[in-house]
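Entry:
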Amino acid sequence: DIIILDLNLESNMDGIKVLKFIREQKFSTKCIVCTVVDDEERLATLSVLKPDKILVKPFDNNQLFTQINAVIKVAKD
């Protein structure tokens, strides 16, 4: 399973909290994080949670598909 997760969610949980929950529960789900955030502090917090990939917006479909395929390839190895 792969989750494409945006950091800016319209709920009481942002993407960092969702990723933290996924990691704390030790789910095997892979996460590709999408964000417009280029704030170094927030990206540092995010990197501690070890997303499988980070895509900074704007990106095109080819970039997304490339990252998805890379995550799948690593998962199969």
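The beta strands are 2-6, 30-35, 53-56.
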